[in-house]
Amino acid sequence: TSKVATIYPQDPALPIGSSLTATCSVNPDHGIHAGSLYWTLNGKRLPSSAYSILSPTVLSVTLPRLSGSRQRSGDNLVCHNSGGHVLAGSCIYVGMPPEKPVNLTCWSRNTKDLTCRWAPGGQGETFIKTKYTLKYKLRWYGREKECEDYSAGEPYTCYIPRDLALFTPYEIWVEASNQLGTATSDVIYLDILDVVTTDPPTDVTVSRVGDLEDQLTVHWGTPPALKDFLFQAKYQIRYRLEESSDWKVQRLFLKINRLTPLHINSSGAAHIWKRLQTGSCDSKVGQQNSTLRRDLKQFFGWFFGWVRKHAYGCSGMSIKLYDQWRVWLQKSHKTRNQVGKELLIRILH
């Protein structure tokens, strides 16, 4: 059967502030005169002053200075006969093109997956449905791919569960699109290994060793996400004085009389020997900092020598770690006052 009527334009997309003139054309075979028709927008009848009878079978309506759509699925413009029956309808999409997405960040929990989050540009309100697509590809080769899992429970987030390459940087970006245009975020470059994060260790306990006041044993369990981790995880232990409000030693200087290499066993336990000596800012500070740097240098010299001896072909990795430590030591020399304020013990496990 032929349609009773048609509306033109059908499902238009318009910028906010635009005006629209639409027509309802009735099939002459049905004997309906245009003068008996009327219009509604989202169920509300439009005033007849906005109508124009263009012919016995065509009625137009003009909508000036349109504001943003009230419904993401589009505003419903409908043509009715005199009895109220719907003859034809059209969806009107009135809004703004999307702005460039911003604040794109990504992280991995186990080097096998990747989660990325971003924010809409500007206010993020376009009044019409905007689709965000996370895209990625290997930086120097490979084809462009799209993230498919947007069900993480948070808006503007996508999850890539598998099939990620290591030791090769990725290009990652977000495209935002709707009926009025497309916008693309800045491209970020990352290696999966550089963005690994995970849950904290489980079952952390601290106990004193025998009757020694300056010796503690710290035990912890591996986070579940790292049970089948491809690489050894790096753990970090921090401590503070009980009366301190943050993780820094305020107005204290640390003098390590004896720094024993940290012993780590397969169960994830580290024995820490520490001796703290309080003091005020005086002429001995430089001497104390010098002693601290010398002790740290001795320790790291032993540690990286051990890595080179036991890494079996991974000397490049140990050299990289050594270079990072050397840069840190140089910086600490420039800011020697900070050395006495905070001691951060890093444990490789």
Structure explained in plain terms:
There is one protein chain. This protein folds into three domains: 5-95, Immunoglobulin-like, CATH 2.60.40.10; 102-196, Immunoglobulin-like (Sandwich); 199-272, Immunoglobulin-like. The strands form six sheets. It has a five-stranded mixed sheet with strand order 2-9-8-4-5, with no helix packed on it. Strands 12, 13, 15, 16 and 17 form a five-stranded antiparallel sheet that branches. A four-stranded antiparallel sheet has the order 1-3-7-6, with no helix packed on it. The radius of gyration is 34 Å and the shape is elongated. A hairpin with a 2-residue loop joins strand 15 and strand 16. It contains three helices and 23 strands. The N and C termini lie far apart (76 Å). Helices cover 14% and strands 34% of the residues. The longest helix is centred in the C-terminal third of the chain and has 26 residues, at 285-310. With 349 residues, the protein is of the alpha+beta class. Keywords: Disulfide bond, Glycoprotein, Immunoglobulin domain, Phosphoprotein, Receptor, Repeat, Signal. This is Cytokine receptor-like factor 1a. It holds the Pfam family EpoR_lig-bind.
